[in-house]
């Protein structure tokens, strides 16, 4: 994650309550729960962290985080992660970045 943020030049420039890494996780969670608002997505994302100190940002702070991060880190993350694309056979799993074929067992 840190390499992707550095590559896309979206690492925060100062210490924040909502760092860039958290922003990418939030963007991914938004994709999982598109029918709910920012606050409910945040609540779902942090639900398993009970007992730990968790920031409770406003919807506006989450909106600003989303705008600050943009789409470049998520796009780059999916380019870095190898995987099988729909319609491909198991032995044709390809890393988008390297273009190398990998078996499904090796991709796990």
Give a structural overview.
Residues 2-79 form the Transposase IS4 N-terminal domain. This is Transposase domain-containing protein. By secondary structure, this protein is mainly alpha-helical. It has one domain (2-107). The chain is built from six helices and two strands. It has helices at residues 2-7, 20-32, 38-46, 59-69, 72-80, 104-107; strands spanning 93-94, 101-102. Strands 1-2 form a two-stranded antiparallel ribbon. A hairpin with a 6-residue loop joins β1 (93-94) and β2 (101-102). α2 packs across α3 and α2 (20-32) packs across α4 (59-69). The longest helix has 13 residues, at 20-32.
> How are strands sequenced across the largest beta sheet?
1-2
Largest sheet features: 2 strands, antiparallel
Helix content: 40-55%
Overall structural class, as computed from helix and strand content, comes to mainly alpha
* Beta strand count: 2
Q: Per the principal axes of the C-alpha atoms, what is the gross shape? A: globular
Whole-number tally of structural domains? 1
**Radius of gyration, Cα only, in angstroms?**
16 Å
Q: Count of helices?
A: 6
Provide the residue-averaged pLDDT: 76
Element string (H = helix, E = strand): HHHHHEEH
Low-confidence stretches: 89-108
């Amino acid at each position: 994650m840190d390499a992707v943020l550095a590559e896309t030049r979206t690492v925060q420039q100062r210490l924040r309550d909502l760092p860039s890494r958290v922003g990418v996780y939030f963007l991914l969670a938004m994709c999982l729960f598109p029918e709910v608002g920012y606050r409910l997505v945040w609540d779902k994302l942090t639900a398993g962290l009970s007992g730990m100190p968790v920031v409770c940002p406003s919807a506006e702070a989450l909106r600003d985080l989303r705008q600050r991060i943009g789409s470049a880190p998520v796009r780059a993350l999916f380019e870095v992660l190898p995987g099988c694309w729909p319609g491909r056979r198991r032995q044709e799993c390809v890393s988008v970045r390297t273009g190398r074929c990998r078996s499904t067992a090796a991709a796990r």
